[in-house]
């Protein structure tokens, strides 16, 4: 049995832990305001809020209910569009949508309203750009986004800054109740959750399918997943730490992309920090983990590509034969084939901490800027002194069966001067190391040429005063 608070009511379900929260809402609880669109985390129509008790209060985040297993609801507050609608009238966000004509057929509207409400719950100082960013995972087929943006601007203006010091605090919830963003019953939720146990980590025997954020697993679905035995890694606090010590950064495998962004670990490392916002949408980033990205072994996974250029190591835990440490670049043996033993999980990832003398760059080309995986992506970390490249690490995705560390290109660059000829040779070497295939994201030829361009782009970005873009055309 899984027990939680659904809007303002206590709720218990006997659905299996791997059942989808969307199915619970629409099929069992008959709360049909949460829409079913793609069932793959791609459209945002099914967006709900999950409130998780933390030391300072309750942290709310927007999630896609279609790829959220019900096991994650235990001891938490699940909020749907019905749960933010006041008994009389509309919430402030709903009013802004009406005032700005931001809804036509209305199919996407509950998801959009939940995303903006989730954004307001997660910040004390709302701004328009971030409010629009919070809608990056919500697709509308008919209204068009201009009026949705106006509604976002309207609500940010109406809400204004919160006096609270922490968005999880009771003071912030009180502020949002005053502003009619959420109903008053939210103020009693923290006390009600206190008497409930939190979600477990599974059978504890290491025999179930490891589920971290589940964004890959549940988007792919597949027969039997719903009723499988699972290990819920996101609820294992030993996998959630972020530490910097002795010149190394160590990230627990269950650290989510959102957590990575808020931790600022990549701050000062070129455009790596900002690039994390190119990973999917807020709803997916709130669940997607580092370990899941690595083990999913998608040749175009963004985090794996960044970590390869950072010379990352992985640590394994709970596997037969104890824990191991190995270079990430040695983990990938072939398409979706990893040097991981049966039952072994990744417990952490570590990489050398930021060095001011090293330049970092990430490039991602995809069909849409947000909510899309790459056609080709690439990361670079380059150490230069006195005009000579001392160390270079370049990786590329979408050009091989695995996330690819460009070992020949990286080795070739050491000792070379930063000149247009060097960059031209690096681009040609990278294209030679790649073995892309034709697929929906582009022809093999296109991807190979694109990789050459991305390598040049790294250098142009990192050495703007030294390299002439015209010489690299
Ligand atoms: C709509 C959508 C958009 C996306 N966009 C992007 C994008 O822009 N960029 C990008 O890189 N990815 C993207 N993804 C893919 C996905 O979100 C990421 O790969 C994410 O980091 C996976 O993490 P997870 O925790 O959700 O993995 P899960 O789905 O939980 O797990 C993935 C696999 O890894 C295994 N696993 C998980 N953690 C561990 C561990 N610690 N040890 C051993 N095995 C483990 C699981 O058993 C499973 O086989 C997108 C996904 C969706 C649904
Ligand atoms: S139904 Fe499309 S994201 Fe869930
Ligand atoms: S209002 Fe019709 S899909 Fe957005």
Structure description:
With 473 residues, the protein is α+β, with helices and mostly antiparallel strands. It has three domains: 1-199, Beta-grasp domain (Ubiquitin-like (UB roll)); 237-352, Uridine Diphospho-n-acetylenolpyruvylglucosamine Reductase, domain 3; 358-472, CO dehydrogenase flavoprotein, C-terminal domain (Enolase-like, domain 1). 31% of the residues lie in helices and 20% in strands. It is built from 17 helices and 18 strands. It has helices at 21-28, 81-84, 92-99, 109-121, 128-133, 145-159, 170-178, 189-194, 215-220, 257-263, 272-275, 282-285, 290-296, 302-309, 407-413, 420-433, 444-462, and strands at 2-6, 9-13, 47-54, 57-64, 77-79, 209-211, 230-232, 242-245, 248-252, 313-317, 325-327, 332-334, 337-338, 345-352, 358-365, 376-385, 388-397, 404-405. The strands form five sheets. Strands 2-1-5-3-4 form a five-stranded mixed β-sheet. The chain has a five-stranded antiparallel β-sheet with strand order 8-9-14-10-11, covered by helices on one side. The protein has a four-stranded antiparallel β-sheet with strand order 15-16-17-18. Helix 3 (92-99) packs across helix 6 (145-159). The longest helix has 19 residues, at 444-462. The protein is globular. Flavin-adenine dinucleotide (FAD) is lined by residues 40-42, 209-217, 219, 233, 253, 279-280, 284, 287-289, 291-293, 295-296, 301-303, 345-346, 373.
End-to-end separation: 62 Å
- Residue share in helix: 25-40%
Radius of gyration, whole Å: 23 Å
**Could you give the order of strands across the largest sheet?**
2-1-5-3-4
Query: What's the tally of helices?
Result: 17
- CATH topology name of the largest domain, in short, is Ubiquitin-like (UB roll)
Compute the number of strand runs.
Answer: 18
What would CATH call the architecture of the largest domain? Roll
